[in-house]
Specification:
By secondary structure, the protein is of the alpha+beta class. It contains 8 helices and 16 strands. The strands form 4 sheets. It has a 9-stranded mixed beta sheet, with helices on both faces.
Length: 336
């Protein structure tokens, strides 16, 4: 069945009509834009809004702060809807107390409330490839110096010498210094933890790690080819994904506001590793970064291939049966 769907942005009553015009098969088993997934999950949706995972792939490289602003629009939509939902629930409790358990609402009122609550945004993954950017997490917010920032912003890479100069951006995720840039997939995961069964933030981090490990293990070397089969692990109690020789291939950092998540994971597909290996990344002075290309030089995979594979694995672990995808170069978001 062919259908369109609404993407809620900014406030819960605001939508971008240019995005609304996108169409895909929502339940076609053979359609590339919709995956019907059979799997063993770590959690499962307990709210109807969480039964579909929406994946927006940004196909054009963009500045980091533009992607951050796009993420914030979707986070705000979730927070605004939670505020509306809380007010409705509080009012119903007040009516129940006022009428000593005999309060009722008529069918028209119930229909209106159901329509409002049905506007709750679905879980969403936004995947990006950024211009060179160093980002600071909460742990270095008060200690990083202007001299250190200047060193980052004046760094010249070994291979990708034509790239623009890196920028430094302070963000509100967990962790320390991280690089985002060409050759990496950055996936922001925006969802309501309370829409899933027994799913605190630490479980989300575990799900992200596992989805990344599964992706690096089973994603195909090329379309229709054998799997990458990259073995990975976790190092001690550190958060992230490492290959077996202790080189890091993916960094994770999340932020939670009123159970709404943001940020997520960065996976090294084919970046210039000099960006990562000339500075202390993620608080690990002795650590080195690696990439899919570095581990598997003959791999013919793209940023978009890995983003699709990662979101599929994430959906499995979340107990979500359907992934709806759309691709955009980001120009539609300029109106948000």
């Amino acid at each position: 069945m062919l259908r369109t769907t609404s993407f809620v942005t900014g406030g819960f009553t605001c939508v971008n009509r240019r995005i609304l015009s996108r169409v895909w098969y929502s339940n076609g088993a053979n359609d590339d834009n919709c995956d019907r997934l059979k799997h063993k999950s770590i959690t499962k949706p307990v709210d109807p809004s969480a039964r579909v995972l929406r994946h927006i792939q940004f196909t054009k490289r963009m500045p980091f702060q533009q992607g951050l602003a796009i993420q914030e629009q979707f986070v705000r939509a979730n927070l605004d809807m939670k505020k509306v939902q809380s007010k409705i629930e509080q009012k119903l409790v007040e009516l129940e107390h006022e009428y000593q358990g005999n309060a009722t609402i008529n069918s028209n009122e119930k229909q209106i409330l159901d329509k409002i609550l049905a506007m709750k945004p679905n879980p969403m993954v936004l995947t990006f490839e950024y211009e060179p950017t160093y980002t600071g997490g909460k742990r270095i917010k008060k200690v990083i110096t202007q001299e250190q920032i200047s060193q980052l912003e004046n760094f010249k890479p070994t291979k990708d010498i034509m790239n623009p100069s890196p920028k430094f951006v302070q963000v509100e995720r967990g962790g320390e210094l991280t690089f985002h840039g060409p050759g990496q997939i950055v996936a922001y995961i925006v969802l309501d933890l309370k829409a899933f069964k027994n799913f605190p933030a630490r479980c989300l981090i575990s799900v992200i790690e596992t989805a990344a490990k599964n992706t690096l293990k089973i994603a195909p070397v090329r379309k229709g080819g054998l799997p990458l089969n990259i073995d990975t692990k976790r190092v001690g109690d550190k958060i992230g994904v490492w290959v077996m020789n202790d080189d890091k291939i993916a960094s994770i950092g999340v932020h939670v506001r009123r159970s709404i998540t943001s940020h997520g994971i960065c996976i090294n597909v084919c970046p210039d590793l000099s960006y990562l290996n000339n500075f202390e990344m993620c608080g690990n002075p002795d650590g080195k970064a690696t990439s899919i290309l570095n581990e598997f030089p003959n791999a013919n995979v793209t940023i978009q291939d890995i983003s699709i594979a990662f979101v599929r694995e994430l959906a499995k672990l979340l107990g979500i049966d359907t992934v709806e995808r759309m691709q955009t170069d980001g120009s539609e978001m300029n109106q948000l």
